[in-house]
Amino acid sequence: xxxxxxxxxxxxxxxxxxxxxxxxxxxxxxxxxxxxxxxxxxxxxxxxxxxxxxxxxxxxxxxxxxxxxxxxxxxxxxxxxxxxxxxxxxxxxxxxxxxxxxxxxxxxxxxxxxxxxxxxxxxxxxxxxxxxxxxxxxxxxxxxxxxxxxxxxxxxxxxxxxxxxxxxxxxxxxxxxxxxxxxxxxxxxxxxxxxxxxxxxxxxxxxxxxxxxxxxxxxxxxxxxxxxxxxxxxxxxxxxxxxxxxxxxxxxxxxxxxxxxxxxxxxxxxxxxxxxxxxx
Length: 280
Ligand code: PAF
Description:
alpha/beta; six-stranded parallel β-sheet; three-stranded antiparallel β-sheet; globular; binds pantoate
């Protein structure tokens, strides 16, 4: 696996591959890689000749008081895992390489970004959309992979790529879970031992809500409130528990068929998110 830190070097390597007509898959990450990320790399491996992975802890998607400074940076371990997963190129730019001067341009997917996580993290999705466009422009992959755990992020990226005619296929990869159901996340490392035991209840709550939707409970607000209160009783500080339409993440109606249940809650230090989507 080659490792590059500059955009110029990245472009040189990509140019060689393009000359040989090789297809390129891209997996953008913020590092501290776990099995969920490796699943993305393996999915990418199957779909293209070459796999590029980026590790960049993007400052513009962190709000004031969030964990940008303390976000786990584990470059050596990440590199070993990526070699094992047979990635071809690791792009590890510095903040200065990506943002050499103050940006005046912001990419904003206006409606989708204001709901759910966007309410409590006001500039987060603008930061995500902008860095993803920058990275897609640098790598110009044929196909790019994102985890479904960040369901809203994935929806925003799909909308942005479509709205801006970016020629890259976007693939969502199923959430990787611990044996007890907890969705894998770098932020799980922040959980204390006792919080770690409670954390899977987040997943259990969305499963229970799905069961009730499928059983035909008509008032979706009642299901939401029941699970919200259940999580609060366990010590979660619930940000939202929402039963939505899959396509636009607006509140679902009883007549809607493609449903996603989205949840975000703080448990001690970390803010955890999860989701489950299904047809009925
Ligand atoms: O999901 C992430 O890790 C990040 O939001 C992403 C897509 C790499 C952009 O920084």
